Amino acid sequence: MAAVRTDRIIAAPAADVWARIADVGAISTWFPSFVSSRLDGDGHRRIALTTGVELDEEIVFVDPIARRLRYHIVGGMPIVASHQATVDVIAVDAERCAVVYSTDVEPAPLAFILGGVIEEALGELDDQVTAAAVAAPAAASGGG
Amino acid sequence: MGRKILFVTVDQQRYDALGCNGGTIARTPVIDALASSGTSYDRAQPANVVCMPSRATMITGQHVHTHGVWMNGVPLPADAPSVAAVLHDAGYATALFGKAHFEPALDPFLRFAEARMGLSGETGPHRGFDRMELATHTARGASHYASWLRANHPDHVDDLYPVVDLTSLEVNPAPGGDTGAPQLGPNPIPRHLYHTDWVADRAIAWLDTLATDADWFCWVSFPDPHHPWDPPAAERHRIDWRQLDLPSGYPESADDRRAVLDGKPRHWRLWHDGDLVSNYEAPAAWVPATMTADQVREVNAMVHVKNELIDEALGRVLAAVARRKWEGDTDVLYTTDHGELQGDFGLLFKGPYHVDSLLRLPLVWRPAPNASAPSANRVAAPVGLVDLAPTFCAIAGLDVPEWMEGAPLPLDGAEAERQHRRRAMTVWDSHHPDGHRMHLRSITEDGWLATTYLPGSHHDGTEGELYDLAADPLQQANRWSDPSCRSLRDDLISDLTDHLPSWPEPHRRPVAPV
Description:
By secondary structure, chain A is α+β, with helices and mostly antiparallel strands. Chain A has helices spanning 14-22, 110-141; strands at 2-10, 34-39, 44-49, 54-63, 68-75, 82-93, 96-106. Chain A has one domain (2-140): Alpha-D-Glucose-1,6-Bisphosphate, Chain A, domain 4.
């Protein structure tokens, strides 16, 4: 088992970032290499990868008070012997938050791969959330 | 019409593999002929002893801490500077055939172009290469070779030894061959379908598309003789492992092996005894101490079978160049990215072990005959693979870009002296999810090899290695703590510190084990 943690400070309120992460069925909108995603009625998230593989993830909990999400990969990647991911959104101040994405995975070499994908995903999430934050006041003022 | 450049690399080949360097097992007449009509370098050193950092140095002409590929699994950014781009922009047709490994080999999410290209069949442009057709050792990966084999010869897909255990993602420890050594396999694949010949075939096919007056840079990058040691079974007869002498670097007595290892920093003995997995280059489940003398012989025999196949494949490429009447205007450079322990010290594979097995590389430059350069020279001064990209620029008549950190290779000893060639430097950094961290800094200068260890998970920063390369060519007597060598040692490390580029934060994340 190996652990990898990826974190990023995002210049946006924690509530805004949490809203994206808590919308678990929409992860493909900000996670590179994910073509599509959906949350099924059985509490599992299914994700189509660019490789044609469909990942099956069990959503363990979505805690809006702690702003913490936990899930396991349970199917679609036979190489994964065990997996747990925890995503925390922590307010730094009113305008910034820290996203901490912690993954435990076996076999250990997967930690490298997942860490890299997650790092890229947090970058995309950052870009989207901060772009939306810029656009929102402009829209409210009627400018562009 | 300028000088054409044929850049040939192999993977994981020792300096002493070639006949021109004193090798007596593999027959390498093609490479030997290049050496006899050009320059051989007796102290060519990589910037790092594993694939990705060393290859990033080749394409950028930069030291490891500048290009930032500090460990296997750290990708070279797609917009990193590239000597191929420099040559392309100067009007050269550019191509790479075979192993690139500027990006991770394990890429299940297809984040990187090398994997996507191999599966889609796209061939570029990428990194300044007009065309890239990629190959590795497996038929199950995302390379052009693997896709080609699956599509055209599916019955042979399972012939190749599986390099990686797909349940653990670790290097496969499965025993094979006659002796049960790891990474040995019978491989029934016909020779013409093996990746060595495929790489040569694809390079020749591209050269045949070029106009007669084209200037071109062709990087022919053979994946061999890197493990797995599974040459086509029909070729194994070339070298009978039972007739081989043991390598001079392999102490036959287990007690002698342990004594040599005990004189080195502790991770050497820990790995030998199976108490440490120091890197992902060797099977985690394989314990070097269990290796037998016969296994050493068989591994060496299979490596040298591969070396012969490479030499013959290169001969076909050179024949194609001659057929196009380009021979007089073509520079040929041949080298490898790093060496292989191949039984030395009772070890196989590679890792944070800075000795000549891994550090001293074959390097031959046969200038274009029409350039009237000196021939049949040997350069004893230290040079580095960091000097390759500047050399390509010089051949093409281009100024060496400021972002390159090496210098064009000298063609003889006198030129080496004029260039003040004094040192070659190599670094190792590793940081694994299990917390293991190692940092080595090495310098070869004035006939000595010195390595200092920075603090890590197994070293406190006081350890080191110091070898007199003339008196101790096998690097079995570590003189780091010898009081009579203290001044020399300190001078070497001081010189290393003065000349090694700094390593600015943040360090890029490794995104794969290889």
